[in-house]
């Protein structure tokens, strides 16, 4: 299989004819909604005119085929020499030649004969797949951890994108998530979680904290709450609030199409993740009016966020869930202080109610004042014979993050909470707010440098220790 992009999967013919079958995928956000199957020809073949290239020194044209073959012959001779010198037997034999598959015309035309539409459940798993005339071509049902227990199809084409919309590898029997493979029969991963330090109380091999009906794992690097939920028969906002640990006022604040909390339409799609929504998050601020969809990532150094903003190479809406960059935010003295304040606010009445949430702002002041403060703290340490930069207020993410908001939301289990630090990088903040009107959105700018980016630093804490 070939994966030239996230939108295309191709399979070359095994007979060397150059034929290629491929599948094109179409997404709405992160959800696969349709695919088209097509074929093309002449893959790997050369135009006859491609065998000669112009000589930059003005000599005769260079024959690409013979030149490449000469270099290959030299390499083969070198390998044979090594075997001979060390007395290794048998000496390898080679059968390279100058033959190639020329064609007089290469049009690159393709034929697309079939189109399919995916109809997923709330976990993104493909339940029904219909063809271009609306007939059901494939129907699947799953056990809790993804193993298929019902599969019906009406033709020879079986989509491999099944549980969670991920690709099932028929040769290994595992499902590929990006960072690793999942064995759905035994509900374990085939390797450890790259973010296992974030979940010290959990096995690095377990899937979605053993709660696959609520959580999904987008890429095999730690479970995450779904960002959206499709209303099922019998649902109301009270049930959905308890299921996802999000208060009813927050759900209504994120979903403008809810007019009555007790009257929801079956099939209606709701936003259910307050921290991961970059457009309508009910608290924390730092909203992106152009794009609501965030992408989970690992930041190994907090400076990457600032440098990437200047160069225009960072993720526009980043949900930072791991790496030393996240640890530096978690260990920042100002963040720890705010987290303790939020915990006290949540437990002030002696109860921890799933979905209740609180937020606080933080502002470090202007840059000159911070530099002066840092030097003053360092000088006091020097006078006492101590390390001048240990626990210094400026030896922190303060110059990358600056002002921020932080929220704490009690999860549905009533024992843990989601903590989120909200921040953004904009042209105005880059100039320490000395300019106005200079902010540019990523989608509305031709050049990505210094365009606005938005960050969520996200982690869970245990409220009942």
From TrEMBL:
Identify the InterPro entries for this entry: LysM, LysM_dom_sf, Rhs_assc_core, T6SS_VgrG/RHS
Where in the numbering of this chain does the LysM domain appear? 227-272
Source taxon at top rank = Eukaryota
Q: Where are the transmembrane segments?
A: none
Q: Which PANTHER family match?
A: PROTEIN RHSA-RELATED (PTHR32305:SF15), PTHR32305
Q: Any idea what this protein is called?
A: LysM domain-containing protein
Originating species: Rotaria socialis
């Amino acid at each position: 299989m070939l994966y030239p992009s996230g939108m295309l999967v191709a399979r070359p013919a095994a007979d060397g004819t150059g034929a290629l079958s491929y599948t094109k995928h179409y997404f709405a956000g992160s959800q696969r909604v349709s695919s088209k199957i097509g074929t093309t020809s002449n893959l790997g073949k050369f135009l006859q005119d491609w065998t000669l290239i112009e000589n930059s020194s003005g000599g005769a044209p260079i024959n690409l085929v013979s030149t490449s073959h000469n270099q290959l012959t030299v390499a083969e001779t070198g390998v044979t020499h090594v075997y001979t010198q060390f007395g290794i037997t048998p000496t390898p034999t080679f059968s390279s030649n100058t033959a190639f598959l020329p064609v007089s015309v290469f049009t690159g035309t393709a034929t697309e004969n079939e189109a399919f539409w995916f109809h997923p459940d709330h976990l993104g798993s493909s339940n029904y797949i219909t063809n271009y005339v609306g007939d059901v071509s494939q129907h699947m049902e799953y056990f809790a951890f993804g193993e298929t227990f019902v599969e019906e199809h009406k033709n020879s084409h079986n989509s491999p994108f099944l549980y969670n919309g991920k690709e099932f590898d028929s040769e290994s029997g595992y499902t590929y998530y990006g960072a690793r493979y999942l064995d759905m029969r035994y509900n374990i991963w085939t390797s450890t979680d790259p973010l296992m330090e974030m979940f010290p109380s959990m096995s690095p091999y377990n899937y979605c904290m053993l709660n696959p009906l609520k959580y999904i794992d987008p890429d095999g690097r730690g479970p995450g709450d779904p960002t959206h939920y499709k209303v099922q028969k019998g649902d109301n906002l009270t049930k959905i609030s308890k299921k996802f640990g999000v208060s009813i006022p927050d759900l209504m604040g994120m979903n403008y199409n809810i007019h009555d909390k007790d009257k929801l339409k079956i099939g209606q799609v709701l936003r259910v993740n307050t921290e991961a929504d970059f457009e309508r998050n009910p608290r924390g601020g730092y909203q992106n009016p152009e794009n609501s969809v965030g992408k989970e990532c690992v930041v190994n150094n907090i400076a990457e966020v600032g440098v990437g903003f200047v160069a225009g190479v960072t993720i526009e809406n980043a949900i930072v869930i791991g790496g030393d960059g996240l640890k530096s935010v978690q260990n920042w003295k100002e963040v720890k202080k705010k987290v303790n304040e939020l915990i006290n606010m949540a437990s002030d009445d002696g109860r921890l109610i799933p979905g209740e949430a609180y937020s606080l702002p933080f502002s470090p002041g202007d840059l000159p004042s911070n530099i002066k403060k840092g030097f003053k703290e360092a000088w006091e340490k020097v006078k006492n014979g101590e390390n001048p930069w240990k626990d210094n207020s400026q030896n922190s993410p303060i110059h990358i993050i600056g002002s921020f908001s932080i929220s704490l939301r009690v999860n549905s289990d009533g024992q843990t909470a989601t903590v989120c630090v909200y921040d953004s990088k904009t042209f105005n903040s880059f100039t320490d707010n000395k300019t106005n009107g200079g902010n540019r959105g990523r989608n509305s700018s031709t050049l990505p440098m210094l365009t606005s980016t938005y960050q969520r630093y996200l982690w869970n804490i245990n409220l009942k220790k």
